[in-house]
Amino acid sequence: MLLHLSNIKGVIMQEKENQEDPLGDSMEENERTKGAWDCLCIPIHWFRMLSREMHWSFVFGVVVVNGISQGLGDAFFSVGTKYYMKDVQKVQTSEAQVYAGITSIPWILKPLWGLLTDVLPIFGYRRRPYFIFAGFLGVVAMLLLSLHENLHLALALLSLTAGNAGEAVADVTMDACVAQNSISHPSLAADMQSLCAFSSSVGALLGFSISGIFVHLIGPMGVFGLMTLPTGLVILVGFLLDEPRMSNFSYRQVKQNFFDAGKAMWTTLKREDVWRPCLYMYLSLALSLNILEGMFYWATDSKGGPSFSQESIGFIFSVSSVGSLIGAILYQYALKDYAFRDLLFWTQLFYGLSGMLELILVLRWNLKIGIPDYFFVVIAESIGQMTNRLKWMPMLVLSSKLCPSGIEGTFFALLMSIDNAGLLSASWGGGFVLHILKVTRTRFDNLWLAILIRNGLRITPLCLLFLVPRVDPNSFSIIQRETKNLELLSLVNSADGK
Prior knowledge:
Layout: H1 2-14, H2 22-54, H3 56-88, H4 93-103, H5 105-108, H6 110-119, H7 128-147, H8 153-184, H9 189-226, H10 228-240, H11 252-269, H12 272-286, H13 292-299, H14 310-335, H15 340-354, H16 356-362, H17 365-368, H18 373-401, H19 408-436, H20 447-459, H21 490-495
Protein backbone atom coordinates (compact mmCIF):
# COMPACT_ATOMS: atom_id res chain seq x y z
CA MET A 1 0.00 0.00 0.00
CA LEU A 2 2.84 2.43 0.90
CA LEU A 3 4.71 1.50 -2.30
CA HIS A 4 1.56 2.17 -4.26
CA LEU A 5 1.17 5.61 -2.69
CA SER A 6 4.84 6.40 -3.43
CA ASN A 7 4.37 5.50 -7.09
CA ILE A 8 1.35 7.75 -7.24
CA LYS A 9 3.30 10.65 -5.75
CA GLY A 10 6.13 10.05 -8.24
CA VAL A 11 3.72 10.24 -11.14
CA ILE A 12 2.30 13.45 -9.74
CA MET A 13 5.78 14.99 -9.48
CA GLN A 14 6.57 14.01 -13.05
CA GLU A 15 3.27 15.30 -14.46
CA LYS A 16 3.11 18.71 -12.85
CA GLU A 17 0.43 19.85 -15.22
CA ASN A 18 -1.95 17.49 -13.47
CA GLN A 19 -2.44 18.94 -10.00
CA GLU A 20 -5.10 16.49 -8.84
CA ASP A 21 -3.98 14.24 -6.01
CA PRO A 22 -5.74 10.86 -5.94
CA LEU A 23 -5.00 10.62 -2.24
CA GLY A 24 -6.45 14.07 -1.78
CA ASP A 25 -9.45 13.07 -3.85
CA SER A 26 -9.88 10.05 -1.64
CA MET A 27 -9.65 12.16 1.48
CA GLU A 28 -12.07 14.69 0.04
CA GLU A 29 -14.43 11.88 -0.88
CA ASN A 30 -14.20 10.54 2.67
CA GLU A 31 -14.88 14.01 4.01
CA ARG A 32 -17.92 14.35 1.75
CA THR A 33 -19.16 10.93 2.80
CA LYS A 34 -18.63 11.81 6.44
CA GLY A 35 -20.38 15.15 5.95
CA ALA A 36 -23.35 13.47 4.27
CA TRP A 37 -23.56 10.94 7.10
CA ASP A 38 -23.43 13.75 9.67
CA CYS A 39 -26.28 15.52 7.89
CA LEU A 40 -28.33 12.33 8.05
CA CYS A 41 -27.56 11.98 11.74
CA ILE A 42 -28.62 15.53 12.62
CA PRO A 43 -32.38 14.72 12.72
CA ILE A 44 -31.63 11.61 14.78
CA HIS A 45 -29.62 13.59 17.32
CA TRP A 46 -32.35 16.24 17.35
CA PHE A 47 -35.08 13.69 18.08
CA ARG A 48 -32.91 12.14 20.79
CA MET A 49 -32.31 15.54 22.38
CA LEU A 50 -36.03 16.35 22.45
CA SER A 51 -36.84 12.91 23.83
CA ARG A 52 -34.23 13.35 26.55
CA GLU A 53 -35.37 16.83 27.55
CA MET A 54 -39.15 16.33 27.43
CA HIS A 55 -39.66 12.54 27.62
CA TRP A 56 -39.88 10.27 24.62
CA SER A 57 -43.67 9.89 24.94
CA PHE A 58 -44.19 13.57 24.08
CA VAL A 59 -42.10 13.29 20.90
CA PHE A 60 -43.92 10.07 20.04
CA GLY A 61 -47.24 11.87 20.56
CA VAL A 62 -46.32 14.74 18.25
CA VAL A 63 -45.20 12.36 15.52
CA VAL A 64 -48.39 10.31 15.84
CA VAL A 65 -50.90 13.17 16.14
CA ASN A 66 -49.34 15.72 13.78
CA GLY A 67 -47.50 13.40 11.42
CA ILE A 68 -49.42 10.13 11.19
CA SER A 69 -52.98 11.09 12.19
CA GLN A 70 -53.20 14.61 10.74
CA GLY A 71 -50.56 14.52 8.01
CA LEU A 72 -50.77 11.04 6.53
CA GLY A 73 -54.23 10.19 7.87
CA ASP A 74 -55.86 13.43 6.77
CA ALA A 75 -54.49 12.92 3.25
CA PHE A 76 -56.12 9.48 3.08
CA PHE A 77 -59.30 10.87 4.65
CA SER A 78 -59.52 13.78 2.19
CA VAL A 79 -58.98 11.76 -0.99
CA GLY A 80 -61.09 8.86 0.27
CA THR A 81 -63.99 11.17 1.19
CA LYS A 82 -64.03 12.78 -2.27
CA TYR A 83 -64.31 9.42 -4.02
CA TYR A 84 -66.73 8.12 -1.37
CA MET A 85 -69.15 10.99 -2.02
CA LYS A 86 -68.74 10.72 -5.78
CA ASP A 87 -68.73 6.95 -6.36
CA VAL A 88 -70.47 5.43 -3.31
CA GLN A 89 -73.03 8.02 -2.18
CA LYS A 90 -73.29 9.47 -5.71
CA VAL A 91 -74.15 13.00 -4.59
CA GLN A 92 -74.12 16.09 -6.79
CA THR A 93 -71.26 18.58 -6.80
CA SER A 94 -73.14 21.30 -4.90
CA GLU A 95 -74.31 18.76 -2.30
CA ALA A 96 -70.78 17.41 -1.85
CA GLN A 97 -69.57 20.98 -1.31
CA VAL A 98 -72.18 21.61 1.41
CA TYR A 99 -71.55 18.24 3.06
CA ALA A 100 -67.82 18.97 3.19
CA GLY A 101 -68.66 22.08 5.19
CA ILE A 102 -70.92 20.16 7.56
CA THR A 103 -68.32 17.51 8.35
CA SER A 104 -65.76 20.24 9.19
CA ILE A 105 -67.94 21.80 11.92
CA PRO A 106 -65.95 20.11 14.76
CA TRP A 107 -62.97 22.28 13.83
CA ILE A 108 -65.07 25.38 14.55
CA LEU A 109 -65.57 24.06 18.10
CA LYS A 110 -61.83 24.07 18.85
CA PRO A 111 -62.20 26.60 21.73
CA LEU A 112 -64.60 24.20 23.46
CA TRP A 113 -62.14 21.29 23.17
CA GLY A 114 -59.36 23.59 24.36
CA LEU A 115 -61.31 24.69 27.41
CA LEU A 116 -62.22 21.11 28.29
CA THR A 117 -58.60 19.95 28.22
CA ASP A 118 -57.52 22.99 30.24
CA VAL A 119 -60.11 23.04 33.02
CA LEU A 120 -61.80 19.61 33.14
CA PRO A 121 -59.46 16.74 34.09
CA ILE A 122 -60.77 13.17 33.95
CA PHE A 123 -59.62 10.67 36.59
CA GLY A 124 -56.93 13.16 37.56
CA TYR A 125 -55.47 13.60 34.05
CA ARG A 126 -55.89 16.63 31.79
CA ARG A 127 -54.54 15.27 28.49
CA ARG A 128 -54.42 11.47 28.41
CA PRO A 129 -58.20 10.78 28.55
CA TYR A 130 -58.85 13.19 25.68
CA PHE A 131 -56.35 11.39 23.44
CA ILE A 132 -58.03 8.07 24.27
CA PHE A 133 -61.49 9.52 23.63
CA ALA A 134 -60.38 11.09 20.31
CA GLY A 135 -58.82 7.82 19.15
CA PHE A 136 -61.84 5.67 20.01
CA LEU A 137 -64.17 8.17 18.32
CA GLY A 138 -62.10 8.04 15.15
CA VAL A 139 -61.83 4.23 15.13
CA VAL A 140 -65.59 3.74 15.54
CA ALA A 141 -66.36 6.30 12.82
CA MET A 142 -63.94 4.77 10.32
CA LEU A 143 -65.12 1.22 11.02
CA LEU A 144 -68.74 2.25 10.44
CA LEU A 145 -67.84 3.81 7.09
CA SER A 146 -65.73 0.88 5.95
CA LEU A 147 -68.02 -2.00 6.93
CA HIS A 148 -71.40 -0.79 5.63
CA GLU A 149 -71.71 -0.67 1.85
CA ASN A 150 -75.21 0.81 1.80
CA LEU A 151 -74.80 3.25 4.66
CA HIS A 152 -77.45 5.96 4.67
CA LEU A 153 -76.17 9.39 3.72
CA ALA A 154 -77.16 10.87 7.09
CA LEU A 155 -75.20 8.20 8.98
CA ALA A 156 -72.27 8.62 6.60
CA LEU A 157 -72.18 12.36 7.28
CA LEU A 158 -72.42 11.69 11.01
CA SER A 159 -69.49 9.28 10.81
CA LEU A 160 -67.38 11.69 8.76
CA THR A 161 -68.16 14.45 11.25
CA ALA A 162 -67.24 12.17 14.15
CA GLY A 163 -63.94 11.36 12.43
CA ASN A 164 -63.17 15.06 12.11
CA ALA A 165 -64.20 15.58 15.74
CA GLY A 166 -61.72 12.95 16.90
CA GLU A 167 -58.96 14.57 14.88
CA ALA A 168 -59.85 18.04 16.18
CA VAL A 169 -59.84 16.91 19.82
CA ALA A 170 -56.46 15.21 19.38
CA ASP A 171 -55.09 18.31 17.63
CA VAL A 172 -56.18 20.69 20.38
CA THR A 173 -54.93 18.37 23.11
CA MET A 174 -51.52 18.09 21.48
CA ASP A 175 -51.41 21.88 21.07
CA ALA A 176 -52.04 22.14 24.81
CA CYS A 177 -49.18 19.72 25.50
CA VAL A 178 -46.86 21.77 23.28
CA ALA A 179 -47.90 25.01 25.00
CA GLN A 180 -47.37 23.50 28.44
CA ASN A 181 -43.93 22.16 27.52
CA SER A 182 -43.04 25.51 25.97
CA ILE A 183 -43.60 27.11 29.37
CA SER A 184 -41.49 24.54 31.21
CA HIS A 185 -38.80 24.44 28.47
CA PRO A 186 -38.81 27.94 26.89
CA SER A 187 -35.50 27.40 25.12
CA LEU A 188 -37.03 24.49 23.17
CA ALA A 189 -40.29 26.22 22.19
CA ALA A 190 -39.13 26.81 18.61
CA ASP A 191 -37.89 23.22 18.34
CA MET A 192 -41.29 21.91 19.37
CA GLN A 193 -43.06 24.01 16.75
CA SER A 194 -40.55 22.81 14.16
CA LEU A 195 -41.21 19.22 15.23
CA CYS A 196 -44.97 19.72 14.73
CA ALA A 197 -44.54 21.39 11.34
CA PHE A 198 -41.96 18.86 10.14
CA SER A 199 -44.11 15.88 11.17
CA SER A 200 -47.22 17.33 9.54
CA SER A 201 -45.47 18.25 6.27
CA VAL A 202 -43.73 14.90 5.85
CA GLY A 203 -46.90 13.00 6.74
CA ALA A 204 -49.03 14.97 4.28
CA LEU A 205 -46.50 14.60 1.48
CA LEU A 206 -46.28 10.85 1.99
CA GLY A 207 -50.03 10.46 2.46
CA PHE A 208 -51.06 12.32 -0.67
CA SER A 209 -48.40 10.49 -2.69
CA ILE A 210 -49.87 7.06 -1.96
CA SER A 211 -53.53 7.81 -1.11
CA GLY A 212 -54.65 7.67 -4.74
CA ILE A 213 -52.94 4.31 -5.21
CA PHE A 214 -54.81 2.82 -2.24
CA VAL A 215 -58.13 4.29 -3.41
CA HIS A 216 -57.53 2.57 -6.75
CA LEU A 217 -56.59 -0.77 -5.15
CA ILE A 218 -59.11 -1.09 -2.30
CA GLY A 219 -61.64 1.70 -2.92
CA PRO A 220 -62.65 4.58 -0.63
CA MET A 221 -64.30 2.28 1.92
CA GLY A 222 -61.11 0.24 2.17
CA VAL A 223 -59.20 3.48 2.75
CA PHE A 224 -61.52 4.28 5.64
CA GLY A 225 -60.69 0.87 7.06
CA LEU A 226 -56.98 1.69 6.89
CA MET A 227 -57.72 4.93 8.74
CA THR A 228 -58.35 2.91 11.89
CA LEU A 229 -54.58 2.42 12.18
CA PRO A 230 -53.57 6.09 12.67
CA THR A 231 -56.60 6.74 14.89
CA GLY A 232 -55.70 3.66 16.92
CA LEU A 233 -52.22 5.06 17.44
CA VAL A 234 -53.81 8.15 19.00
CA ILE A 235 -55.31 5.84 21.64
CA LEU A 236 -51.81 4.49 22.27
CA VAL A 237 -50.57 8.05 22.81
CA GLY A 238 -53.17 8.47 25.55
CA PHE A 239 -51.90 5.39 27.38
CA LEU A 240 -48.19 6.13 26.96
CA LEU A 241 -48.07 9.91 27.51
CA ASP A 242 -46.01 10.86 30.55
CA GLU A 243 -48.35 13.09 32.56
CA PRO A 244 -48.50 13.59 36.33
CA ARG A 245 -51.77 12.69 37.96
CA MET A 246 -53.58 15.50 39.75
CA SER A 247 -54.48 14.77 43.35
CA ASN A 248 -57.17 16.42 45.45
CA PHE A 249 -58.62 18.31 42.52
CA SER A 250 -61.89 20.04 43.28
CA TYR A 251 -64.37 20.05 40.43
CA ARG A 252 -66.05 23.06 42.02
CA GLN A 253 -63.38 25.29 40.46
CA VAL A 254 -64.19 24.07 36.93
CA LYS A 255 -67.21 26.34 36.64
CA GLN A 256 -65.21 29.34 37.80
CA ASN A 257 -62.40 28.57 35.36
CA PHE A 258 -64.89 28.37 32.50
CA PHE A 259 -66.37 31.68 33.57
CA ASP A 260 -62.97 33.39 33.86
CA ALA A 261 -61.85 32.14 30.46
CA GLY A 262 -65.09 33.19 28.78
CA LYS A 263 -64.95 36.63 30.38
CA ALA A 264 -61.34 37.13 29.35
CA MET A 265 -62.02 36.12 25.75
CA TRP A 266 -65.09 38.34 25.47
CA THR A 267 -63.25 41.30 26.98
CA THR A 268 -60.44 40.85 24.48
CA LEU A 269 -62.74 40.38 21.48
CA LYS A 270 -64.47 43.70 22.24
CA ARG A 271 -61.23 45.60 21.70
CA GLU A 272 -61.16 47.46 18.39
CA ASP A 273 -57.61 46.37 17.63
CA VAL A 274 -58.76 42.74 17.99
CA TRP A 275 -62.21 42.49 16.42
CA ARG A 276 -61.25 44.44 13.30
CA PRO A 277 -58.48 41.99 12.23
CA CYS A 278 -60.72 39.07 13.22
CA LEU A 279 -63.46 40.42 10.95
CA TYR A 280 -61.01 40.74 8.08
CA MET A 281 -59.73 37.19 8.57
CA TYR A 282 -63.27 35.81 8.50
CA LEU A 283 -64.38 37.80 5.44
CA SER A 284 -61.21 37.15 3.46
CA LEU A 285 -61.77 33.41 3.86
CA ALA A 286 -65.55 33.46 3.43
CA LEU A 287 -65.35 35.46 0.18
CA SER A 288 -62.84 33.04 -1.33
CA LEU A 289 -65.52 30.61 -2.44
CA ASN A 290 -64.64 26.94 -2.31
CA ILE A 291 -65.66 25.02 -5.46
CA LEU A 292 -63.14 22.20 -5.07
CA GLU A 293 -65.79 19.50 -5.33
CA GLY A 294 -66.94 20.82 -8.69
CA MET A 295 -63.34 20.90 -9.90
CA PHE A 296 -62.77 17.37 -8.59
CA TYR A 297 -65.84 15.97 -10.37
CA TRP A 298 -64.77 17.68 -13.61
CA ALA A 299 -61.14 16.52 -13.34
CA THR A 300 -62.21 12.88 -12.98
CA ASP A 301 -64.93 13.02 -15.65
CA SER A 302 -64.31 10.87 -18.71
CA LYS A 303 -66.13 13.12 -21.19
CA GLY A 304 -65.58 16.82 -20.63
CA GLY A 305 -62.67 16.65 -18.21
CA PRO A 306 -59.13 15.25 -18.20
CA SER A 307 -60.32 11.96 -16.65
CA PHE A 308 -57.51 11.77 -14.10
CA SER A 309 -57.07 8.42 -12.37
CA GLN A 310 -57.03 7.92 -8.59
CA GLU A 311 -53.24 7.68 -8.62
CA SER A 312 -52.97 10.94 -10.55
CA ILE A 313 -55.29 12.76 -8.15
CA GLY A 314 -53.23 11.65 -5.17
CA PHE A 315 -50.00 12.72 -6.82
CA ILE A 316 -51.47 16.12 -7.75
CA PHE A 317 -52.44 16.69 -4.12
CA SER A 318 -48.96 15.70 -2.99
CA VAL A 319 -47.36 18.19 -5.39
CA SER A 320 -49.68 20.90 -4.11
CA SER A 321 -48.49 20.19 -0.57
CA VAL A 322 -44.95 20.85 -1.80
CA GLY A 323 -46.16 24.21 -3.13
CA SER A 324 -47.57 24.98 0.30
CA LEU A 325 -44.23 24.11 1.89
CA ILE A 326 -42.41 26.42 -0.55
CA GLY A 327 -44.79 29.21 0.40
CA ALA A 328 -44.00 28.73 4.08
CA ILE A 329 -40.26 28.83 3.35
CA LEU A 330 -40.62 32.01 1.27
CA TYR A 331 -42.52 33.68 4.07
CA GLN A 332 -40.00 32.62 6.71
CA TYR A 333 -36.90 33.77 4.87
CA ALA A 334 -38.11 36.68 2.73
CA LEU A 335 -41.49 38.13 3.77
CA LYS A 336 -42.04 37.71 7.51
CA ASP A 337 -40.86 41.23 8.43
CA TYR A 338 -43.18 43.10 6.06
CA ALA A 339 -46.15 45.06 7.42
CA PHE A 340 -49.36 43.03 7.74
CA ARG A 341 -51.45 45.25 5.48
CA ASP A 342 -48.87 45.55 2.70
CA LEU A 343 -48.15 41.82 2.62
CA LEU A 344 -51.83 40.87 2.71
CA PHE A 345 -52.53 43.22 -0.20
CA TRP A 346 -50.06 41.50 -2.53
CA THR A 347 -50.76 37.95 -1.36
CA GLN A 348 -54.53 38.42 -1.71
CA LEU A 349 -54.07 39.93 -5.17
CA PHE A 350 -51.83 37.08 -6.37
CA TYR A 351 -54.22 34.56 -4.79
CA GLY A 352 -57.05 35.91 -6.93
CA LEU A 353 -54.94 35.98 -10.07
CA SER A 354 -53.66 32.42 -9.51
CA GLY A 355 -57.24 31.18 -9.76
CA MET A 356 -57.25 32.20 -13.40
CA LEU A 357 -55.05 29.20 -14.13
CA GLU A 358 -58.01 26.94 -13.34
CA LEU A 359 -60.13 28.99 -15.74
CA ILE A 360 -57.58 28.33 -18.50
CA LEU A 361 -57.65 24.62 -17.63
CA VAL A 362 -61.45 24.30 -17.69
CA LEU A 363 -61.74 26.22 -20.97
CA ARG A 364 -59.06 23.86 -22.39
CA TRP A 365 -56.88 26.78 -23.52
CA ASN A 366 -53.84 24.93 -22.21
CA LEU A 367 -54.31 22.27 -24.91
CA LYS A 368 -54.46 24.94 -27.59
CA ILE A 369 -51.01 26.19 -26.60
CA GLY A 370 -49.63 22.66 -26.35
CA ILE A 371 -49.52 22.14 -22.54
CA PRO A 372 -50.91 18.73 -21.43
CA ASP A 373 -53.61 18.66 -18.76
CA TYR A 374 -51.54 16.76 -16.21
CA PHE A 375 -48.54 19.08 -16.44
CA PHE A 376 -50.71 22.19 -16.37
CA VAL A 377 -52.82 21.14 -13.38
CA VAL A 378 -49.67 20.31 -11.40
CA ILE A 379 -48.37 23.82 -12.07
CA ALA A 380 -51.74 25.41 -11.25
CA GLU A 381 -52.14 23.48 -7.99
CA SER A 382 -48.58 24.23 -6.87
CA ILE A 383 -48.94 27.97 -7.52
CA GLY A 384 -52.39 28.05 -5.94
CA GLN A 385 -51.24 26.31 -2.76
CA MET A 386 -48.11 28.45 -2.54
CA THR A 387 -50.08 31.71 -2.81
CA ASN A 388 -52.69 30.40 -0.38
CA ARG A 389 -49.95 29.62 2.15
CA LEU A 390 -48.40 33.06 1.65
CA LYS A 391 -51.82 34.59 2.31
CA TRP A 392 -52.42 32.41 5.34
CA MET A 393 -49.08 32.85 7.13
CA PRO A 394 -49.39 36.58 7.98
CA MET A 395 -52.92 35.98 9.28
CA LEU A 396 -51.59 33.16 11.44
CA VAL A 397 -48.88 35.44 12.87
CA LEU A 398 -51.43 38.21 13.38
CA SER A 399 -53.67 35.78 15.27
CA SER A 400 -50.84 34.85 17.63
CA LYS A 401 -50.21 38.57 18.25
CA LEU A 402 -53.85 39.11 19.27
CA CYS A 403 -53.82 36.52 22.08
CA PRO A 404 -54.04 37.94 25.64
CA SER A 405 -51.76 36.82 28.43
CA GLY A 406 -52.89 33.84 30.46
CA ILE A 407 -55.34 32.31 27.96
CA GLU A 408 -53.12 32.25 24.89
CA GLY A 409 -53.93 28.67 23.92
CA THR A 410 -57.70 28.92 24.30
CA PHE A 411 -57.91 32.33 22.61
CA PHE A 412 -55.74 31.13 19.72
CA ALA A 413 -58.12 28.19 19.32
CA LEU A 414 -60.98 30.73 19.24
CA LEU A 415 -59.28 32.66 16.46
CA MET A 416 -58.68 29.46 14.52
CA SER A 417 -62.36 28.61 14.91
CA ILE A 418 -63.22 32.01 13.41
CA ASP A 419 -61.02 31.12 10.45
CA ASN A 420 -62.68 27.71 10.20
CA ALA A 421 -66.07 29.44 10.22
CA GLY A 422 -64.83 31.47 7.25
CA LEU A 423 -63.79 28.27 5.47
CA LEU A 424 -67.23 26.77 6.23
CA SER A 425 -68.95 29.84 4.79
CA ALA A 426 -66.74 29.60 1.69
CA SER A 427 -67.64 25.92 1.26
CA TRP A 428 -71.38 26.54 1.57
CA GLY A 429 -71.17 29.62 -0.63
CA GLY A 430 -69.35 27.61 -3.28
CA GLY A 431 -72.00 24.91 -3.08
CA PHE A 432 -74.70 27.54 -3.57
CA VAL A 433 -72.95 28.93 -6.66
CA LEU A 434 -72.53 25.44 -8.15
CA HIS A 435 -76.22 24.78 -7.53
CA ILE A 436 -77.37 28.05 -9.09
CA LEU A 437 -75.19 27.50 -12.15
CA LYS A 438 -76.47 23.90 -12.43
CA VAL A 439 -73.02 22.29 -12.23
CA THR A 440 -73.80 18.61 -11.59
CA ARG A 441 -72.04 15.25 -11.63
CA THR A 442 -72.14 15.10 -15.40
CA ARG A 443 -72.76 18.69 -16.50
CA PHE A 444 -69.96 21.25 -16.34
CA ASP A 445 -71.01 23.82 -18.94
CA ASN A 446 -71.05 26.66 -16.40
CA LEU A 447 -68.08 25.60 -14.30
CA TRP A 448 -65.95 28.29 -15.96
CA LEU A 449 -68.44 30.90 -14.77
CA ALA A 450 -68.24 29.58 -11.19
CA ILE A 451 -64.44 29.92 -11.35
CA LEU A 452 -64.76 33.47 -12.69
CA ILE A 453 -67.17 34.44 -9.89
CA ARG A 454 -64.87 32.89 -7.30
CA ASN A 455 -61.81 34.69 -8.65
CA GLY A 456 -63.65 38.01 -8.61
CA LEU A 457 -64.70 37.52 -4.99
CA ARG A 458 -61.12 36.63 -4.05
CA ILE A 459 -60.13 40.19 -4.96
CA THR A 460 -62.84 41.90 -2.88
CA PRO A 461 -61.00 41.54 0.49
CA LEU A 462 -58.58 44.16 -0.83
CA CYS A 463 -61.30 46.71 -0.04
CA LEU A 464 -61.31 45.57 3.60
CA LEU A 465 -57.60 45.95 4.34
CA PHE A 466 -58.29 49.03 6.43
CA LEU A 467 -59.34 46.58 9.17
CA VAL A 468 -55.77 45.25 9.40
CA PRO A 469 -53.01 47.20 11.19
CA ARG A 470 -50.27 48.56 8.94
CA VAL A 471 -47.50 47.84 11.46
CA ASP A 472 -44.94 45.08 10.99
CA PRO A 473 -45.14 41.85 13.05
CA ASN A 474 -42.14 42.75 15.22
CA SER A 475 -43.68 45.93 16.61
CA PHE A 476 -47.35 44.92 16.88
CA SER A 477 -48.89 43.95 20.21
CA ILE A 478 -52.11 44.62 22.09
CA ILE A 479 -52.32 46.31 25.46
CA GLN A 480 -54.00 43.86 27.78
CA ARG A 481 -55.16 46.07 30.64
CA GLU A 482 -58.48 44.28 31.03
CA THR A 483 -57.17 40.73 30.82
CA LYS A 484 -53.77 40.81 32.42
CA ASN A 485 -55.11 39.55 35.75
CA LEU A 486 -57.33 36.85 34.29
CA GLU A 487 -54.74 34.12 34.06
CA LEU A 488 -55.83 30.51 34.36
CA LEU A 489 -52.74 29.36 36.20
CA SER A 490 -54.21 27.59 39.21
CA LEU A 491 -55.14 24.43 37.33
CA VAL A 492 -51.84 24.35 35.43
CA ASN A 493 -49.85 24.78 38.61
CA SER A 494 -51.77 22.03 40.35
CA ALA A 495 -51.20 19.74 37.37
CA ASP A 496 -47.50 20.41 37.49
CA GLY A 497 -47.40 19.73 41.19
CA LYS A 498 -46.43 23.31 42.09
